[in-house]
Amino acid sequence: MVGSSPLLVLAFSVACIFGQLFELAQAQNGTQPATDPAEVRALNTIFQKWGISARLNQWNISGEPCSGAAIDSTSFDDKNYNPFIKCDCTANSNSTCHITQLYVSFFSSCFVSHAILA
Questions:
Q1: Which of 3, 38, 89, 118 could form a disulfide with 33 if both were Cys (CB 3.0 to 4.6 A apart)?
Q2: Cα–Cα distance between 84 and 73 in angstroms, integer?
């Protein structure tokens, strides 16, 4: 800024920094998106009928399934997660999650069957 005083430049810089900090604080205080309740019921029913469950340290099937690895950068192809879901949480202005992928692998002594719904 040609001809601007250093004080004006400093004030503008401080205002920008506080604006960014305010936006960051609002983003962290926002509520987390929730999985569509009908999809939670359907997923729980399927898992109950199949007699399977997710490990607690991977994602939360009983409360909010679209959490943890279901919404982070974990690859859907990561076979350490079985069963596994991935979610899209952009519906309703980022307030609703939908389960978009389901992976379940069943192993027995007679056969191997893979069920992948995408």
A1: 89
A2: 13
For residue 48, the surrounding DSSP H or E stretch is helix 37-50
Distance CA 46, CA 40 (A): 10
Contacts of 113 (CB under 8 A, 6+ apart): 105, 106
The string of pLDDT tens digits covering residues 14-41 is 566 655 655 544 444 468 899 999 999 9
Task: Dump pLDDT digits (tens) for 53-97.
Answer: 887 777 676 678 998 889 999 999 988 888 999 999 999 999 999
State which H helix or E strand residue 101 sits in: strand 96-107
Is 85 within 8 Å of 101 (Cβ atoms)?
Answer: yes
The structure's pTM equals: 0.62
